[in-house]
Design the sequence.
């Protein structure tokens, strides 16, 4: 999924890497230890490992409970050469019967991110 932002890639990068920013749009609570992220939603915890980090460009996580090592979720940031806006591309894996729910969840979360970041 792709989303357009007026904010810089550096600002978006901050909003997906720092606990104080993540709790404003992505989760209720987050604890980060090295490359290990513990996310909480409504009291349910999910652990993910940061497997790739290219500052201001890309972050790739893998859920620790995931049985398929080739599945991940990723935030990729780039600038549109025409409009100079930032493009946030989110890649995530879901089962076929969960695809629409997953898309709706990301749209809701990114909407909240846009509210927090100012567009």
Sequence:
């Amino acid at each position: 999924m792709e989303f357009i932002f007026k904010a810089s890639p550096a600002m978006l990068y901050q909003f997906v890497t720092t606990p104080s920013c993540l709790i404003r749009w992505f989760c209720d609570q987050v604890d980060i230890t090295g490359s290990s992220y513990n996310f909480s939603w409504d009291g349910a915890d999910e652990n993910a490992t940061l497997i790739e980090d290219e500052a201001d460009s890309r972050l790739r996580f893998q859920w620790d409970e995931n049985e398929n090592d080739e599945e991940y979720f990723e935030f990729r940031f780039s600038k549109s050469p025409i409009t100079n806006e930032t493009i946030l591309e989110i890649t995530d894996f879901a089962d076929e019967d969960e695809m629409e729910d997953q898309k709706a969840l990301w749209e809701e979360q990114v909407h909240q991110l846009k509210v927090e970041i100012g567009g």
Observations:
- Residues 18 and 103 are 24 Å apart (CA to CA).
- The helical segments are 9-17, 19-25, 99-117.
- The longest strand covers residues 44-54.
- The longest helix spans residues 99-117.
